Amino acid sequence: PGGFSYGDYLRCGAIASLAPAMDAVRRFAARGGPVLGICNGFQILCEAKLLPGVLRPNRQLEFVCREVTLRVESADTPFTSRCEVGQELVIPVKHGEGAWFAEGGEFMQLVARSQIAFRYTEDVNGSLGGVAGVTNETGNVMGLMPHPEHAVDPLLGSADGGLLLAGLVDAASRHVLATAKTA
After folding, report:
1. 59-89: per-residue pLDDT in tens?
2. Strands, DSSP E only, in the chain?
3. CA 132, CA 111: separation in Å to the nearest integer?
4. Cβ 1 vs Cβ 35: under 8 Å
């Protein structure tokens, strides 16, 4: 989930990516387990090289805290399985270093492999190509800057985040069943 790991005094997520707990995350992901990194979790997964790209300071060098609209770019991930390509979701962002970036060639490869999961419908932070979330090549690891856990009830402004969290629960259930069969 989001937060400020180790105070984020170096680069957001850089120190946390070296924490001993990340060894378990790497092993779980390598076995096909679903891993979702939200905000600081996304930064950590990028720093740990479990996801492509890096997160940089927002273009405007200011903290952004507001609801944004995302467009689903890929529904072929465990996390977006309850969504449709092109569907728009309203989910809040709360970050100062959320501008996702990858070199041009890497970015084009990610687009070609459908690893871009979400894009902002308007530029909120200067992310390359409006990217709000990406996956690894196999699709079982995903990171996104918006906070789906803060969009689970219309009283909070939107319940759209529930689609992603329900997809995570579905994927975790499938993983547990598949792991139990091979054990």
Report:
1. 999 999 999 999 999 999 999 999 999 999 9
2. 35-38, 54-56, 64-72, 88-95, 99-101, 116-120, 131-135, 141-144
3. 13
4. no
CB atoms within 10 A of CB 48: 20
First-to-last alpha carbon distance for the chain, in angstroms, is 29
Which SS3 state, helix, strand or coil, does residue 17 take?
A: helix
Nearby residues of 109 by Cβ (< 8 Å), 6 or more positions away: none
Q: Is 67 a catalytic residue?
A: no
Largest CA distance in the chain: 51
CA distances from 142 to 77, 99, 180, 182 (A): 8, 16, 23, 25
Residue 47 among the catalytic residues: no
Q: Which of 12, 39, 46, 83 is the catalytic position?
A: 39
Distances (CA, A) of 111 to 106, 142, 147: 9, 15, 23
Catalytic residue from among 12, 97, 147, 150: 147
Question: pLDDT tens, 37-64?
Answer: 999 999 999 999 999 999 999 999 999 9
Catalytically annotated residue among 47, 73, 97, 149: 149
Identify whether 137 is a catalytic site residue.
no
Which of 29, 44, 39, 61 is closest to 137 using CA atoms?
Answer: 29
